[in-house]
Amino acid sequence: MPSLFEARARQALQERIDRLTPDGRPRWGRMSAPRMLTHIGDQMRQAIGELEVAPVPGPLAHRPLNWLVIHVLPWPKGKAKSPPALLAREPSDWAADHAEVKRLVERLANRGPDLPWARSPVFGKITRADWGVLCHKHLDHHLRQFGV
Q1: pLDDT tens, residue by residue, 84-127
Q2: Is residue 133 part of a domain?
Q3: Percentage, residues of the chain above pLDDT 70
Q4: Helix 7-18 vs helix 94-109: angle between axes, to the nearest 10 degrees?
Q5: From CA 109, how far away is CA 12, in angstroms rounded?
Q6: What's the pLDDT at 71?
Q7: CATH no. for residue 121?
């Protein structure tokens, strides 16, 4: 699985993020492009401990099921429920939100292996490698949602 820690995979995501437009229409779901940007930004902020998100109880918080979902299974279109805190922030300015997502991708990628990572609200305690794959998979899912 690609990871945000892989320069080539990260660059490809950044190029796709650059092709997003504020008026882009989703291929599935009801989220607008500006809302999607705040959502993916908040997920990355949560990963590095800058946004507190309450845990979502369930079987995905345990190995090996969380590993299987993160590393093997495809992301479901319109079926996965995000924790409410990752959908709560209103978009502000498109250019600012867009630039922030790009910065967060780089901040995540450059986060050293000795720095702490937050517990995932859905997947529980996961490794740095898991976070790299999960964030890539999440970004890829939403970029595909908007056709980029």
Answers
A1: 888 889 999 999 999 999 999 999 999 988 899 999 999 999 99
A2: yes
A3: 99
A4: 180
A5: 13
A6: 96
A7: 1.20.120
Q: Evaluate whether residue 16 is within a structural domain.
A: yes
Determine, yes or no, domain membership for 22.
Answer: yes
Q: How far is residue 45's CA from residue 38's CA, in Å, rounded to a whole number? A: 10
Following DSSP, what letter does each residue of 91-122 receive, concatenated? Answer: P--HHHHHHHHHHHHHHHHT--TTS--PPBTT
pLDDT at 79 over 70: no
- For residue 39, which amino acid is it? H
Give the total number of structural domains in the chain: 1
Q: What is the pTM of this model?
A: 0.94
SS3 134: helix
Q: Which residue has the higher pLDDT, 83 or 24?
A: 24
User: Is the preceding peptide bond at 74 cis, omega within 30 degrees of 0?
Assistant: no
On whether residue 94 sits in a domain, the answer given is: yes
Task: Write out the residue range of the structural domain in which residue 68 sits.
Answer: 7-145
**HSE of 123, CA atoms in CB hemisphere, 13 A:** 24
